[in-house]
């Protein structure tokens, strides 16, 4: 597959047991590009997870409406309120009169600050789950993230894990699945993107991060749905191992130009 030179919507396809991915690819000059994924579950109460890039709004809505009658959409799960995840939220809400936005208190507050309609928010209190007719979506904090309202989930029926921004990777071109990416390319892209998107990983408690990764492996999700990575169809272990090796094993060699110590040194 060639590298697109503009944001591009890709074909929707299966994402594990009974989820669909609506994938896009955002080129980043000099760095390859980044997957921008939304996900759809077409059950009795359909769920859309995130709403894509505003720049691809017409294409995104057409792709979504090819999958589902938006009059039937019941839930829009917001991973967080970054622009690459809520780009078409208002347009989807306009066309989906039954849909409620699933988020937490901070997510709702940020929606209000952005001028978005909060009257259709379904507020998830701490510890609450989203109950669907045949499964629950259990909110789950991914191992790293870039906005404190971030909510991933584990689907109790399909055992798909939605990881929000976690495990995102810069890639030279779009790929159909994690398994189709050359291992070194995956490692380099994941480590570079995690350093950009979650720079606090460099100063995180490595043991605590390692325990979180191990706990995630024990949950044993069947599929990993990341907002910024092709779908991982063979579970989470490959991804947690890459994060562990990058951020838990060795001291960071790179100097953060914005760290207090570096600034103090520069000031003498
Ligand atoms: Fe984000
Ligand atoms: Fe993101």
From TrEMBL:
Question: Does the keyword field hold Metal-binding?
Answer: no
Under the heading InterPro entries, the entry gives:
Metallo-B-lactamas, NADH_oxidoreductase_modular, ODP_dom, RibonucZ/Hydroxyglut_hydro
Which Pfam family is one of this chain's hits? ODP
The record's annotation in SUPFAM superfamilies points to: Metallo-hydrolase/oxidoreductase (SSF56281)
Q: Give the UniProt keywords, A-Z.
A: Electron transport, Iron, Transport
**The Metallo-beta-lactamase domain, residue ranges:** 35-228
Its protein name is Metallo-beta-lactamase superfamily protein
Which source organism? Billgrantia gudaonensis
